[in-house]
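Re: that backbone. Tokens:
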């Protein structure tokens, strides 16, 4: 029987780069089966990796900040059965806290290594890890900030002697003061993904205007009945339903470009962008939305939103999307263009802020001025895969579905 069990990166990363964010246990600590051990972060989700066995965390192979490819070994667990057969003195040695040059055993080996390398006490560094833990990235950022301050400190000029308070340094009045904010692994992954998209696909955007009057009226009539079933009826549920109708009219929008063919998906798996404040953006997916009713879409959307805000989404919740919605209007913008395509998809929908606007409507053959809830909607396409007539045809059906909502 093997004495150790490897802690490995899950294979279900769908090509997304993962970074070791923070170790929740340290070498020498006892762990139980399925105890959370380490956090991995991608551009989509932060995931806890659990212990594959009971025993002692014997070794951390990948420290905080390391790139974690699917199948790679993160650390090793000395199995409980193997521990029981060891000589008591050796067991005592293994269980003793590891020496810590910082005077504390609460920092990871990577942080202690940074202390030895940089001479920066981690107790003085603001941590960005779970529960405020200091990570290797925090230590690196602190060192860079220290170096920057050293480089920017001007030398005292002889003419300034006697004119500045003791111990003070003259500051360049031209150069703006600044401070360093370390990139999180999620932000770095988003940056790489966005750059890859605009480099890969020629982006073209069409913008239409949608009247939400029919949707607003239906929602007002229906939301109490939905609430009785525990479902919050959001405008996004209507938008997803309208996307499904538009896909049926122009299925090529729901596709992926390959060098020798266009792959058109039969399933409509719609990802909905969800902002996490300064941390970045995640995109949970409504799988096989073409088979769902409005109420089923609303319920699924509510579940994903609640778990997303609580940090409870998994990789499975993010995988397999064939089309994405960016509801940027929730933060106040009217139009955003181009919205960068979520590769390897062929298009992305943008929905601006809904607001009351004065519009002209014909009534009994006469033009009338009315106030309607309006929003700009855009479709950004990969011009390798799609053309203007497909883009505009899709948006036409999308808007018609919203404006002609029945029920």
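Recovered sequence:
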């Amino acid at each position: 029987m093997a004495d150790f069990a490897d802690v490995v990166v899950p294979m279900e990363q769908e090509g997304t780069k993962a970074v070791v964010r923070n170790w929740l246990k340290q070498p020498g600590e006892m762990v139980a089966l399925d105890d959370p051990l380490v956090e991995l972060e991608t551009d989509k989700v932060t995931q806890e990796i659990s212990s594959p066995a009971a025993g002692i965390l014997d070794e951390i192979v990948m420290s905080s900040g390391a790139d974690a490819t699917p199948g790679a070994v993160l650390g090793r667990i000395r199995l409980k059965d193997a521990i029981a057969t060891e000589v008591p003195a050796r067991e005592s040695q293994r269980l003793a806290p590891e020496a810590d040059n910082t005077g504390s055993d609460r920092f990871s080996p990577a942080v202690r290594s940074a202390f030895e390398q940089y001479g920066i006490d981690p107790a003085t560094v603001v941590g960005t890890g779970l529960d405020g833990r200091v990570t290797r990235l925090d230590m690196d950022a602190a060192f860079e900030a220290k170096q920057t301050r050293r480089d920017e400190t001007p030398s005292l000029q002889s003419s300034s002697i006697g004119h500045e308070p003791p111990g003070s340094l003259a500051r360049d009045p031209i150069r703006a003061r600044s401070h360093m904010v370390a990139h999180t692994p999620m932000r770095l992954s988003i940056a790489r993904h966005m750059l890859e998209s605009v480099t890969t696909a020629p982006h073209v955007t069409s913008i239409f205007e949608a009247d939400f009057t029919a949707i607003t009226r239906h929602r007002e009539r229906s939301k109490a009945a939905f609430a009785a079933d525990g479902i919050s009826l959001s405008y996004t549920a209507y938008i997803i339903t309208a996307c499904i109708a538009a896909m049926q009219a122009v299925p090529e929008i729901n596709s992926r470009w390959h060098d020798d063919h266009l792959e058109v998906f039969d399933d409509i798996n719609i990802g909905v962008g969800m902002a996490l404040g300064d941390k970045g953006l995640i995109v949970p997916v409504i799988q096989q939305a073409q088979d769902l009713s409005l109420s089923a879409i609303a319920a699924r959307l509510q579940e994903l939103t609640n778990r997303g805000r609580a940090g409870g989404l998994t990789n499975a919740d993010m995988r397999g999307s064939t089309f994405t919605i960016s509801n940027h209007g929730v933060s106040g913008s009217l139009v955003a263009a181009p919205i960068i395509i979520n590769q390897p998809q062929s298009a992305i929908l943008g929905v601006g802020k809904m607001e009351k606007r004065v519009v002209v409507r014909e009534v009994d053959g006469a033009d009338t001025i009315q106030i309607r809830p309006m929003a700009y909607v855009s479709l950004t396409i990969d011009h390798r895969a799609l053309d203007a007539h497909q883009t505009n045809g899709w948006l036409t059906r999308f808007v018609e579905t919203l404006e002609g909502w029945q029920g």
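The chain has ten helices and 19 strands. Residues 11 and 226 are 39 Å apart (CA to CA).
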